[in-house]
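Board notes, transcribed. Complex of a protein with 2-keto-D-gluconic acid.
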Amino acid sequence: MKPRILVTRRWPDAVERLLAERFDTTFNQDDKALSAAELSEALEQFDAVLPTVSDKLPASVFAQTAVRTRLLANFGVGFSHIDIEAARARGITVTNTPGVLTDCTADIALSLLLAVARRAGEGERQLRAGDWKGWCPTHMIGAKVSGKTIGIIGMGRIGKATAKRAHFGFDMKVVFYNRSKVDDEAVRTMGARQLDSVEAVLAEADFVSLHCPGGAENRHLINAARLKAMKPGAFLINTARGDVIDQQALVEALESGVIAGAGLDVYDGEPAVPAALTSLDNVVLLPHLGSATEETRVAMGMRAVDNLTAFFEGRAVPDRVA
Ligand code: 8YV
């Protein structure tokens, strides 16, 4: 008998077709995010559940007596929406989809960096509103990007891909903070310098880009004190997870000019975005588009299929996180 699997959101067609061929698959035709009760029920009914960032799986979702699910094959590289310890305690394997979204997420980080520095969002809003009065030497002056310093917090795959674009594309100097030592070819060819603390990076960087995991370990890593520790005129970019920044402190720093601006793709409590943020001009806001390209979303799905297939054939899963 084919394993019973639940895909919690709509996935690219090509991946859904393959899943339907290989497994006894239930799709979420309405594409509405599942509630905690629905996810809990799914763990009782399916051999594998394929969740994504819009599915919250705290310990309470794993608390029922009978759990049928043996694999959570997450669609996405970040998995801080899943309580890994609770999954492990119930004997559930968890996998993610690393690597395939590195380039596209780094591209979005650079898009945000350029857009906020050069006031692209503001300019587009002005033009569309019919408020552009024509060229003049003092119109909408932004900050130069080329040659500046980028500070990367979290020098993993996406951090390195972002630094590479900034360095080779825009001649930027690279400094970074990472908990463990990073000293490989990629870092050496960029001349990137690893610094001892987040503060040391904030003190040097004109642009700070976050690439560390979300969840308890990094919650509010960027708080009011660290926003103050950034250089005057610096910009903050977040394509990691919303909870890495204290969002209220960020609003205050943007309002008072403690930092020059921010580019955000992720939010604490998304999809809700506070009006205090949407009403500010010095922030560029994207709706979690990091991996949103045809090629990458298909590749993410295929990676999840590989994990599922390996698991149910009794082979080691390629992307095990628990
Ligand atoms: C995903 C992401 O598309 O993979 C991640 O961690 O942040 C995104 O780019 C999203 O989380 C869906 O899983």
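DSSP finds twelve helices and twelve strands in the chain. The chain has two domains: 4-100+294-312, 102-285.
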